[in-house]
Design goal:
The complex is a heterodimer of chains A (about 280) and B (about 800). Chain A is an alpha+beta fold. Chain A is built from ten helices and 13 strands. In chain A, a hairpin with a 3-residue loop joins strand 6 and strand 7. The chains are: A alpha+beta (about 280), B alpha+beta (about 800). Flavin-adenine dinucleotide (FAD) binds next to strand 2, helix 2, helix 5, helix 6 and strand 10 of chain A. The site of flavin-adenine dinucleotide has 29 residues of chain A, from strand 2, helix 2, helix 5, helix 6 and strand 10. Chain B: It holds the Pfam family MoCoBD_2.
Chain lengths: ~280, ~800
């Protein structure tokens, strides 16, 4: 298998257009596993790790523009104030080694229903910036990005340049259930982000459906029930919110857990998250 | 026996010299069997069955054989000699013959220029199967006469049935004494050894038509013994050398790639290396037997056991492996280290089309321990008694009679163990963050709170968290049992090199990570009074050492090294007597001479006024003294097939754990806060290694309690990877406080007691008991799953359902 190193972003885009069969490799923490397990035999690997343009993040108009090459470790260390839920999710990913290598862009392109960044990106209304050599930049809202189990809206000639995530404008939470204290794939996960200016609620559910899901009915319900000044909700409304989150999930039984446990756990996580958000008022 | 040198020898018995492989392993420089390399070597690959049970209609290897770079494609038709092998019964085909009996059974092997080609060639082999309905339910396999037989030539699916009958639990006169009767069913899932170094080895054809195999294994000679007939070679033409072993835990007792690589090497006349990848490894070795167990315990009002009954079903999978001996352990140790005069235990080992199961740390005693310890808690609860007290009351002691009629010789200090355990300090009260406080942190010194249940997942700030405490006790037989003479051999040599005495030790004993190499050198230093001891690589050029199993190597190979050293010492003294007869006066005896500090002394130890007689360098000069000795443990007897009576075990070892856990009872997540363990080891030979064994054993027991399970459905393995077969990480393993007791066994070398397995037994029930205490649910199946623990009824018809 050929190993191609792209030195610049334009270089990478050109190569990807010429050789759509080349698999981009960022941290490699998904790609290398797929190669080792012989799940995939791409004709070439396109190494993105040397591209300077991808290595940084920037704040542009109230959003963080997160370069495709930024590791989880840097998200935790540098962005916990601006993107608290993403930092919480990043902290739950793998082990220190994986967090040093792995990227949010890689998580997105793998598009696993269990990707831990995804519920947060859904809850915060993030936008994926995809680019192709011939067609330029395309902005894909995250809720339109996941098209099926391990499938996403990227075209064969496209690469992710950055993920644009609105800077937190209110409390955010992310919780992940796993059967081990660390280094575990989510049995299910839940993210919530409040925008106190716009008075909106965003949610995201992981590992409980063919794709990451947003609990829209729950979001609408909470917008109406929340006292936006104190961030309080009645106990009954919190309970209802939990049920609505659970209802939005489409889980299955698998080796990691049962469908009914996932629904149950999501309900518990959603209710708890409301309690924690109240503490942030 | 006592140690013959009274001044402790530097890095001798009782010291903690560092192991030679330690730094190398931590820095990644240790050469494992997967790192082997030879000039011109080929790579082997295995084609395995995708079905748990199927008839092989046709195998077509032509496409694979025609591929560029492929040198051999072999099936069962190409096996040079005997076509089956096995540790106890030789029912396991080298490569499947006409039928496959489990998911992952080897069907064909390939040798090619590189690994990728070998794997692609294996995939190119066409096998036509007629898929048959698998026997996947061990209960049906045991009791349903209509069930298909896994082996058509056998009358049933029972590998071994072993009852143990003592007294009569149904006797009418017992019933008056009974205050409580508890009957419960328990289940243990299939645990894997999960060693980190996958199966691997290098077979090199020799000029005389034989083969040299470098391999990671647990017992070189039993590999040789099984391989030679299959390769149609005399044993001396099959020589084995131990390669770097990346963990074993029983999973390397059975053969994996040994015959395959050798067949390929003999056929191609080239060295052939085989290395399984992680997925293949899960199919490449036997696992721990899953168990279904039904127990009845009756106790009087004081908590004394009146009678006990147990039925244990152990799923051995497709081939016999060591199921026979696992059943023997489960039956003979079926009610644990408790006195009870009226007992009926019935243990069954079964054939199914599930993955084959055999040896794993604890070997049949683990499954039973989970059941009998759960029962002790149930009985205590029914009587309103303290769980430690009920164990104390019923604890065995020296002289107790086990259900097999065997009398425990030597100390059996279970009461002392429990008394010590309860004095150990408890952890501080939980200090979880308040609801609404910022995210939890990990356990960092100075930080305010513990890692909560859910770990890094940010799932609770104290909501739903309850603390529980639980206890577990276990008893394990040490060495092979039931009449097996698992002797060990050691060759020890003493010579002078560069003016210094050097002892070299040669055995075939497998260092599998337990620290045996270090220990052999310690024994030689102590026995011969030298500073410099070398342990030669383990191979079949010296007699068998038996298996690195059953917590037996310190006892058996330790005993062999010690015995060989004693023979060397006698010869050295004899040499001294001949060379320097004037050393002693007439009223002094040559038998009072001791070796220490590189010299012969009269009397034991400087403190007691020993007199230096001569330096070893002067006594030996250019002479080399060498002795090879076998060490045998005392004889044991088979269990009577009808009554299960017999002195079947060599030695017993016991440990007890206390577990403190925090459980999120709404999410069903567990964090083990602290574990405390007390173990009697007879004599501490190397404290550092010993503590490592207790740590590791406890962790493996924690894994079985909380997460480790090979999940199968209709015989198909569903999670053959470390993505979904979870083993504890450092964040799952709590601080472990240890107290180690030394009640010397009068029969064993140095008074030692085998120590590797007992902590694996008692850790599991202690943790489960603690989780039960926290959440109030019965929890009769392990590993525990969140949906079992969660108190809240779940969604639909499954969530939160219990196994009542
Ligand atoms: C031991 C281990 C533990 C793990 N634990 C977790 C966990 O807890 N949670 C979790 O969510 N994940 C986990 N993962 C999976 C993995 O670490 C994450 O999905 C990570 O985000 C992948 O990022 P990466 O940079 O390593 O991606 P890579 O492996 O480099 O790439 C992943 C995919 O993205 C594509 N790709 C990469 N960059 C781009 C780009 N710029 N444009 C277009 N396509 C691109 C690649 O071609 C590939 O298809 C774990 C993996 C391992 C090995």
């Amino acid at each position: 298998m050929e190993f191609i190193t792209a030195d610049s972003w334009t270089d990478a885009l050109r190569i990807k257009t010429e050789r759509p069969g080349a698999a981009p490799i960022a941290g490699g923490t998904d790609v290398m596993v797929e190669l080792n397990f012989d799940l995939r035999r791409p004709e070439a690997l396109l190494d993105l790790s040397r591209i300077r343009e991808l290595k940084d993040w920037d704040v542009v108009g109230g959003s963080v523009q997160l370069g495709a090459g930024v590791s989880y470790t840097r998200v935790i260390e540098e962005l916990a104030d601006r993107l608290p839920a993403l930092a919480m999710a990043a902290r739950t990913v793998g082990s220190p080694q994986i967090r040093n290598r792995g990227t949010v862009a890689g998580n997105l392109a793998t598009a696993s229903p269990a990707g831990d960044a995804h519920p947060v990106l859904l809850a915060t209304g993030a936008v994926v910036e995809a680019e192709s050599f011939q067609r330029g930049v395309r902005k894909i809202p995250v809720d339109g990005f996941f098209t099926g189990v391990k499938r996403c809206a990227l075209e064969p000639d496209e690469l992710i340049r950055a993920v644009v995530i609105p800077t937190a404008a209110g409390p955010q939470q992310f919780s992940k259930v796993g059967t081990r204290n660390a280094m575990v794939i989510a049995v299910c996960s839940f993210a919530i982000a409040l925008d106190l200016d716009a008075r909106t609620v965003g949610t995201g559910i992981g590992s409980a459906g063919p794709t990451p899901l947003a609990a829209r009915a729950a979001e609408r319900f909470l917008v109406g029930e929340l006292d936006w000044d104190t961030l309080k909700v009645s106990e009954a409304a919190a309970a209802r919110f939990g049920k609505l989150v659970a209802q939005a999930a489409q889980p299955i039984d698998d080796v990691r857990g049962t469908a009914s446990y996932r629904k149950h756990a999501l309900e518990v996580l959603a209710v708890r998250a409301l309690g924690w958000i109240r503490g942030c008022a | 026996m006592t140690v013959t040198t009274s001044t402790p020898v530097h890095k001798g018995i009782g010291g903690s010299p560092l192991r030679p492989d330690g730094t190398l392993k931590v820095t990644g420089e240790f050469a494992y069997s997967s790192d082997l390399w030879a000039e011109g070597m080929l790579y082997g690959s295995t084609l395995r069955s995708p079905h748990p049970r199927a008839r092989i209609v046709r195998i077509d290897t032509s496409a694979a054989a025609a591929m560029a770079g492929v040198h051999a494609v072999l099936t069962s038709a190409d096996i040079p000699g005997k076509k089956t092998y096995g540790l106890i019964a030789d029912d396991c085909p080298v490569l499947a013959i006409d039928e496959v009996r489990y998911h992952g059974e080897p069907v064909a092997v390939v040798a090619a220029d590189d690994l990728d080609t070998a794997r692609r060639a294996a995939k190119a082999i066409v096998v036509e199967y007629e898929v048959l309905e698998p026997v996947s339910d061990m209960r049906r396999a045991a009791f349903d006469a209509e069930s298909p037989r896994v082996h058509a030539d056998r009358a049933d699916n029972i590998v071994r049935y072993q009852p143990v009958r003592r007294g009569n639990p149904d006797a009418a006169d017992l019933q008056d004494r009974v205050a409580v009767v508890v009957t419960r069913e328990y289940e243990v899932g299939m645990q894997d050894q999960a060693f980190l170094g996958p199966e691997s080895g290098l077979a090199i054809p020799t000029e005389d038509g034989g083969v040299d195999l470098h391999v990671a294994t647990q017992w070189l000679h039993v590999d040789q013994e099984q391989m030679a007939p299959c390769l149609a070679l005399p044993p001396e033409k099959v020589q084995l050398t131990l390669a770097g072993v990346g963990g074993a835990f029983g999973g390397r007792e059975d053969l994996s790639m040994q015959i395959h690589a050798s067949m390929l090497a003999l056929r191609t006349k080239r060295p052939v290396k085989m290395v399984y990848d992680r997925r293949e490894s899960f199919f490449g070795h036997v696992h721990r037997h899953p168990a279904l167990m039904k127990y009845t315990h009756a106790a009087d009002a004081d908590g004394r056991l009146v009678y006990a009954k147990a039925q244990l079903l152990l799923d051995g999978g497709a081939y016999a492996s060591t199921t026979d001996a696992v059943v023997g352990n489960a039956a003979s140790l079926g009610i644990g280290p408790y006195e009870c005069d009226d007992v009926l235990i019935e243990a069954y080992g079964l054939y199914t089309n599930n993955p084959p199961c055999g040896a794993m740390r604890g070997f049949g005693a683990v499954q039973a321990c989970f059941a009998y310890e759960s029962q002790m808690d149930e009985v205590a609860a029914a009587l309103g008694m303290d769980p430690v007290e009920i164990r104390r009351i019923n604890a065995v002691k020296e002289g107790s009679i086990l259900p097999t009629g065997q009398r425990i010789e030597g100390p059996a200090p279970l009461r002392e163990i429990l008394d010590e355990l309860v004095t150990m300090p408890m952890p501080p009260e939980p200090s979880l963050p308040e609801p609404g406080e910022p995210e939890p942190r990990t356990r960092v010194p100075g930080e305010r709170w513990e890692l909560p249940p859910g770990g890094y997942g940010n799932t609770t700030r104290g909501e739903g968290v309850r603390r529980g405490v639980g206890y577990g006790v276990g008893i394990k037989n040490i060495c092979y049992s039931e009449g097996f003479d698992d002797f060990s051999t050691a060759r020890v040599r003493l010579e002078i090199s560069g003016g210094e005495p050097i002892a070299s030790v040669h055995t075939a004993a497998a260092e599998v990570g337990q620290g045996l190499v270090t220990l052999q050198a310690q024994i030689a230093r102590t026995e011969l009074g030298v500073d410099h001891a070398v342990v030669l690589p383990a191979d079949t050029q010296v007699g068998s050492a038996g298996s690195s199993s059953a917590s037996r190597q310190s006892y058996m190979t330790g005993g062999a090294v010690k015995t060989a050293c004693e023979a060397v010492r006698m010869e050295v003294i004899e040499l001294a007597r001949r060379k320097f007869p004037e050393l002693l006066s007439d009223d002094e005896s040559w038998s009072d001479i001791h070796l220490a500090d590189g010299a012969l002394h009269l009397g034991a130890g400087v403190a007691t006024g020993a007199r230096l007689l001569a330096r070893l360098s002067d006594v030996l000069g250019t002479d080399v003294v060498e002795a090879t000795r076998e060490y045998h443990h005392r004889r044991t007897n088979p269990l009577d097939p009808e009554t299960g009576q017999g002195d079947s075990h060599v030695q017993f070892a016991m440990a007890a754990h206390r577990a403190v856990v925090d459980v999120d009872v709404e999410l069903g997540l567990v964090h083990v806060v602290q574990m405390d363990v007390v173990q009697d080891v007879g004599k501490i030979l190397n404290r550092l290694s010993l503590e490592g064994q207790i740590q590791g054993g406890t962790a493996q027991g924690l894994g079985l309690a909380l997460m480790e399970e090979i999940q199968t459905r209709d015989g198909l393995v569903r999670n053959p990877s470390f993505t979904d077969y979870l083993i504890p990480t450092i964040l799952d393993m709590p601080p472990l406080n240890m107290r180690i007791l030394e009640f010397a066994d009068p029969n064993s070398p140095y008074g030692l007691r085998g120590a590797g397995e007992p902590p694996t037994l008692s850790s599991t029930p202690a943790i489960v008991a603690a989780v039960r205490a926290a959440c109030g649910r019965p929890l009769r199946r392990i590993p525990l799953r969140p949906e079992q623990i969660a108190l809240v009824e779940g969604y639909g018809d499954e969530g939160g359902e219990e196994d009542v």
